[in-house]
Amino acid sequence: MSDSKPTTPPIDPQSIPRGASQLWRIWLPLAGGLIVALMPVPAGLSPEAWYYFALFVTVLLGLITEPIPATAVAFIGITTAAALGLPFTAAQRANPAFQQPAEAVKWVLAGFSNGTVWLIFAAFVFAMGYEKTGLGRRLALLLVRALGGRTLGLGYAVAFSDLVLSPFTPSNTARSAGSVYPVIRNIPELYGSHPGPTARKIGAYLMYVAFATTCVTSSMFITALAPNLLILEMVKKATGIEVSWVHWAVGFLPVGALLVLTLPWLIYKVYPPEIQTSNEVPQWAQRQLTAMGRVTRRELTMAALASVALSLWIFGGSFIDATLVAITGVSLMLVCGVVTWDDITGNKPAWNVLAWFATLVVLADGLNRVGFVAWIGQGTAALLSGYPPLVVMTLLVAFFFLIHYMFAGLTAHTTAVLPVVLAAGLSVEGLPVKTFIMLLGYCLGIMGILTPYATGPAPLYYGCGFIERKDFWRLGFGFGMLFLVSMLLIVLPWLQVLNR
Question: How many domains are there within the chain?
C-alpha cells in the first residue's frame, strides 16, 4: 500500500447523465403530478390545497428521479407554487390587507432563515476545517490504527461514538453532522475510497452506519433530539401526562440497544463494503502518523474550537442556540485562519445543501399551510373508528411514521401532524394513552432514516457523494420499515407492562 496521501476528487453528487434515455426522469414526475391535479378535488379540501399537493407530488418524484440537480427541482417547485399563489388560502387572498406578491417572496425565502439549515451548512465548514488543518486526517489515522484491521470494527467505532454523545446533545445535526461526520469523512480516503466508483470500498458503508445510528440514538433519550422535548411539552399541555427522562429511556431500551448493537453488522451484510479486512492498514496508519509529525498549532486551534462548540452543544442549550454556536465557530475559524472566506465560498457541496434543504423546508410547510395535512389526519381518524384500541393505536403510529415522507424536518412534522394524530387517538375509548404518546415520541428519531430530507444530518450524508441516490432511498425504506416494525413488536408490549 502506498504511503502517499490520496487526493480527494471534487464532490458533485448532483451529476446526472443526460440524453434521450433519461427523458423518463422528466416525464415521470410531470405525469404523476398531472394525474393528481386532474383528479376531482376531494371533499373537505380546497382546490388550492389539492393543486399544491399535486405540485408536491411532482417535486417529490423529481427528487427521486433527478432529471436536473435535486436543489434545482426543489427551487423550481417552490417558485412555481408561489407564482401560482398555491400556498395561500382563499380567505387570505380575500383579506384587503393581504399583499400576495410580497407574501409569496417572503414564503419562498423563509427556509433560508431556518436555524437547522445553517447548522447543516456550518457542519460542512467544520468538516472543511478538519480537512485543511490535517486534524481530521490525524484523528482518522488514530482510529484506523486502533480498529482498522476490520471494517466492521470501524463501523462499531462510528456507532458507539454517536451513542456516547447522544444523551447530552439534543440535536442530531450537531452530534452527527457536526461531530461524527468531520472525523469519519477522512477515513475512506485512507483506503482509496472516494465519492464515485470507489465509494463502495468502505466510504459508503461508514457513512450509512453513521446516519442510521444517529436516527436510532435520537429516539433513545429525550435529550438526544429537540423535537422529543417538543412533543412531550405538547402532550403535557393537551393531556397533563408527563414522561420522565428515565421512563423514556427505559421504554425504548429493548429495541434501542438491540439496534445499536446490530446495525453495523446488519448494514455490513445488506450494504457490504468491498474492503473487509486489511492487516496492513493499522501499520500503514502508524507510518502515516509518524510522517505527519507533531500536532501543529492550526490543528490545536481547530481542536479547541471544535471542543468548545461540542461542549456548548451538549451543555449550553439553556442559554445559547446550537446554530449560533455553529456560526460563531465558523466566524472564529475565519478569525484564527483555520479557513479562509475563499475556502467557504468555494465549498460547492455546502452551498448546494443549504439551498436544497432551505427550499424543502418551505415546500413541506406549504402542505400544512393549505390544510392538507390536517385533512389527511381527520380522514384517517374517521376511517379507524370502530376498530379495537390497540389496532387503532398501531395504525395511527404507522401513519405518523410514514407521513414523514411529506416533511423536510422533524420539528415541522411534530407541529403539524401530532395534534391531529393525538386527537384521533384520544377519541378512542380504551386506548392506552401513555403508551400511545411514547410510541409517537419514539418515531421522531427513527423516522429520520426514510429520506434524504427527513432529518438534519440526512442532506449531509446524502450530499457527501458516497451513497448513491437509489441506494439512499432503497436503504431508507428498508431500514425505516425495520425500525417501525421492531418498535411495534418489541416496544409496544414492553410499554404495556411498563405503564401499568
Answer: 3
**Domain-located, residue 7:** no
Boundaries of domain holding 402: 354-498
Whole-number Å distance between alpha carbons of 114 and 133:
29
Task: Map residue 96 onto helix, strand or coil.
Answer: coil
Q: Are 466 and 271 in contact (CB under 8 A)?
A: no
Q: What is the pLDDT of residues 243-300, one digit of tens each?
A: 888 899 999 999 999 999 999 999 999 999 999 887 777 887 888 889 989 999 999 9
Question: What does the pLDDT look like over 88-131, one tens digit per residue?
Answer: 877 788 788 888 888 889 999 988 888 878 887 888 888 788 88
Q: Are 364 and 404 in contact (CB under 8 A)?
A: no
Distance CA 9, CA 170 (A): 34
Residues 346, 350, 356, 358: is their CA dihedral positive or negative? negative
Do both 90 and 190 map to the same domain? no
**Residues contacting 331, CB < 8 A, separation 6+:** none
Is residue 98 assigned to a domain? yes
DSSP letter assigned to residue 491: I
Domain boundary among 351, 375, 408: 351
Closest Cα to residue 123, out of 298, 355, 313, 327? 327
Residue type, 284: W
Cα 493 versus chain centre, distance: 28
Contacts of 433 (CB under 8 A, 6+ apart): 239, 241, 425, 426
Within 10 Å of residue 332's Cβ, how many Cβ atoms?
A: 15
- Print burial letters for 395-426: b (CB count within 10 Å at least 16), e (below 16): ebbbbbbebbbbbbbbbbbbbbbbebbbebbe
Per-residue confidence (pLDDT) for residue 10, from 0 to 100: 38
Residue type, position 262, single letter? T
Cell of 116: 437547522
Cell, residue 101? 406578491
Cα(386)–Cα(393) distance, integer angstroms? 12
The CA radius of gyration of the chain, in Å to the nearest whole number, is 23
Residue 413 has pLDDT above 70, yes or no: yes
314 neighbors 169 (Cβ within 8 angstroms): yes
Give the count of beta carbons closer than 10 Å to the beta carbon of residue 113: 11
